[in-house]
Design a protein that fits this description.
6-stranded antiparallel β-sheet; single chain; 494 residues; alpha+beta; 7 helices
Length: 494
Amino acid sequence: MRITNKMMTNNVLHNINNNKNLLSTLENQYSTGKKIQKPSDDPIVAVRALKLRTNLSELTQYVDKNIPDALSWMDTTESSLGVVNEILRQMNTYCNQGANDPLTAKDRNSIVTNLEELKQQIYQEGNSNYAGRYVFSGYKTDTPLVFDEPTNKYTYEITEPLSGKDITVEFKIVNNVDINAFDKNNPDAFDKTMPNQVQIYRMRLAYGDLEPGASLTYTDGSTDAEGNLVEQSLTITEKSLTDPDVYMPGDDEVYFIKETGELIYGKEVYEKVRNSEHINVSYTKKNFDTNDLRPEHYFDCTRTAEDGEVLHYEKQDQQIQYEVNFNQKLTINTQGRDAFTHAIGRAIDDIINAVNDVAETEAKIAEVEKMLEDTNLTPEQRKALEGIQEQLNSEFTLRTDIMQAAFAGGLTDTVTMQDKVSVTMSDLGGRYNRLLLTESRLEDQQVDFEDLLSSNEDVDLVDTIIKYSSAETIYNSSLSAASKLVQTSLLDFL
């Protein structure tokens, strides 16, 4: 085969170009640190890089954003629950003191003041928020758990689910002594009936200061043809605290006291419903005080605003879940009803009312004692006042017993709520630990994927530098060889 100068020249140019392309490729790898600059350079590396980058991007989203946000939310929740638990511990101490120790008026006032402040603080913790979102309000993160200020802008029609276990046996005082009815000119006309206790069956609703009207349905276990529980209704009679028989219903009657939010059952009705698992009481409330729990977070209810806007709320499980791993979600929120109850506030209200009743009786005793100091009293007047004093002493003893029972009830309620908060904190702690374990595992995976991505895309700089130096030498050598290739031609021999 005849080799021409043209063929040799073309081969030299081709080899020089190949060497130059190799040098260019190595120069790009050296300057960028990447194996390829476009998918066509190595499709396998490109496809693998896309997959690895997608996985790494998701891992980065979980590790750097989702998980830290979830941990911060749960930290805020845990901090609030810890404060609530400490407040309940203090409440428990005060209630224990009130239930067991003889207290002076000063002691009682101090305890009541502290309990009221602690009650307010508990419900304030219910409005804890993270980044402007309320952490105990379920899906309604823009709505606080409790009212921030007194309001009557909304009317709530509430259906509260209860059971026979919510009916408690209490004692109330009847035949209270009214010293305003004492007439010096007719001392014998004063009612000499001694105060005494009556046993009542009371169901305490979530709220007091209710609007007129309430209805009650219950189930006693009977079913219809399809096996569904049959709801039965009870007739409710509305009573006021000023009614003398407010705590003495007939055996087959139920009294509704709107001022205090109480249902007082007659004995026969109590026996009828005491074992019922489902008692629904419907009532209306308009006036709310600061730190009252908002009904929409706890009950099925209908809210009507002043402008006529009507909203219906259904009690439901509202779990806020974050995606913290591939196809793995974790509930980060704690719902208010799992930690904050109406019972503790109502128990404190009972204690305050009982302490005020004792203080009122003490004031009446002091007034009668002052009246007895009058030297101008007739024997009939003095005898009548001494009888009143005896009545008041009896009333004081009875009210003191009721007050201590109220403190004992508060002791039970604080322990119950403390147990509830402890269970909630335990559940939160378990989810928190799971999240930490997930974070640790994903951080390890993130490092692994970064190594895989680096191994797939990045070049070995030392190896690249060596190859680049070698390619540069080869390129320069090819140029030198080309310059000497055709220095003579056929013309030199003619």
